[in-house]
Amino acid sequence: MPKNKKPRGGRPSANFEPRYGANKTSFHDRHAGGRDSARDTRDSRDSRGGRADAGERRTPAAGFDRRPGSRSASHRGYRPAEEGGAPKQRWSSQERAGRDEARGIRNRAESGRREAPHNRDDRLRYNDRSTGFDRPRRDDRGGQRPTGPGTYRDERGGQRDERPRRDDRGAGTQRQGFRDNDHRDGGRPGRDDRRDQRSGGFRDDRGGQRFSRDDRPQRDDRGASERPRFNRDDRPARSGDRTERPRFDRAASERPRFDRDDRPRRDDRGAGPRRDDRGGYERPERSYDADRARRAFDRDRTQRSIEGGRDERSRPSTGGAYRTDRPRPLTSDTRGRPSRNERPSRNDWNATSSAAPAKKFEPTDDVVHERLEAKSVAAVEVDGVTFGDLGLGSNIVETLVGMGAATPFPIQAASIPAVLAGRDVLARGRTGSGKTIAFGAPLVERVLQSQAGKRREFGRSPRAIILAPTRELALQIDRTIQPIARSVGLFTTQIYGGVPQGRQVGALKKGVDIVIGTPGRIEDLINQGKLDLSDCRIAVLDEADHMCELGFVEPVQRILRHTADGSQKLLFSATLDREVAALVDEFLVDPAVYEVAGEDQDSSTIEHRVLVIEHRDKADILTSLVDRDGKTLVFARTRAYADMLAEQFDDAGIPAVSLHGDLNQAKRTRNLERLTSGRVNVLVATDVAARGIHVDDIDLVVQADAPDEYKTYLHRSGRTGRAGRSGRVVTLITRQRQRRMSELLERAEIDAPFENARLDDDLIEEIAGRVPTTADLTA
DNA sequence: AAAAAAT
To answer: Which among A211, A232, A342, A382 is least surrounded, fewest beta carbons within 10 Å?
Structure first.
């Protein structure tokens, strides 16, 4: 490491993120001509954030507003010698710590850091696991600081300056490919400046924000320090909005009620008796709300969406059964967990259930989750409803609008009120149905509410965590949520593997509100004492069922156990079934279960086809299929095959890149970006890209290898036909596989014609979207 | 088989 420091100082950054240089350059050029090499090196990552840069730059110029904020400035000796002596010192040391972390690898070795004289309490805390994270201390710290606005500003500024780094980090990856990042960075300053955003910068999209930023430098500068306060102020103001909210909330609450209404029906169907039981149980449960009481948030668990449909569950837990129900309009899953009500505590429950199914409702473990009874939300129900109606604050609503989400999708309309009410939520929404916003927006709102009136302290521990199965998905989620969080002055950071920890740790030291990442690195940092989830009150699992698969669930469980007692849990996925049982049993209390009515394949915008081919024709047929206009995503079962296909296509004159776990993160990010940017039209990936990844206009998904699981099929095919667009999915199989394939499709509830195809078949031309007449030879 | 930590 030590070696790395220096040497890298100059070069590495370049190696690391070559792109940064480019982007940065432009950014810098625009903003501030002067930048020193040192800064480049250090801030290269941050470049975009511009905060750091801005801060530094300002130091000289506008300096004082930002002054406090710019850590780097401080470091360099720009140090603010302000009134609040005590706070200052702390700041300086904290700042240093933060900076060091941020510089991470380059500047020092971990050990060195720890030993460093300036290890302060914070450091001790963080580093010393045994100590764990001392909340008290922090609190104390916070207590002392709270002083004046000045102090506050300092914090702000400081964070901001550092911010860039975080962003950049993410940006590093995203930057190239995703303007979103830029977006964020730009957005940052403008958090509060809704108007500006509205005015146009925001809509301009990512890039726009940046610009907008440029446009309102003053504000940013100013707002930088004050913003936080303003935000708070806004909050209260919002409260005004909320005033209205109550109504809305009611409306929202009604939704659940609707659900209830639905229930009756269900009961009528046959679950009736149970329901009564359940009711009985419910009472008890509340009694021990005591446990939950901790969840300060939840008050409204009044409505319980879950019905214990144990009896009904007679069907096998097989996905097929599950699905079968699904198509039925609304409702589909039942996650019966009546017994939960009985159980004194979650843990107890687990023990009980697993050990002895003693309760009346005792569902055997496996059976329990087979069916999830969900309240379905019909599109009609949400017609005319706005995000504001659902209980989101005006800043968030505006941000959503700016992002193109003017009105809530059904899954959003369903889950947002429940999340805001503090309930645990299980929600299933078809791929591309807007799940990220469904949990992200209310999560931000809730975090905001939970710390209303409090200041965002330096080094505060995160209040919410979002777990995703792949790094790309984590990045993507952050891309969606960060602007929302920023709009209300909250910070997010990404914590995922494959990249140096330094920046991530630095961000954590400075303090973030929402952590988004993958299990491995998150657990790693927890174990290192660098990530404290003890104050984390909301945990989200995206692609929850996938996270529950063998080998994935344990780390997830361990991570969730680190979150605050009684923390709210949200599980989202396009395929949500009993697989989440392990987590639901342990972590969810009386969850609200939602799904969107009518979301079956019939209503899908995706066309499915299966080509039965001769194995020897496979390579050529694949090449022929991807030789087309429009973006094509090819799925292969193994990394090696993915690479091989990408090469094959390339050799055939069709630019293609691959995406899989054998590539380093930089390549992964770069290759995905190449597809999103359109520099290549063909991406060959393993299932790493099967879930969650959103690329706007993929109109053809080719499965070079048929998936083994129906869920995999659903997720892979969900990469196309996003947000109502049309898309086509072609699966290549050999004759021997027909039976398996038809079974899989049946489970997925997908109707797809099986067609025999040969190399020069017009069929291939048709599927590729080429005009049959075109006598083009591929390869 | 793949993914998720780092070494």
So the answer is: A211
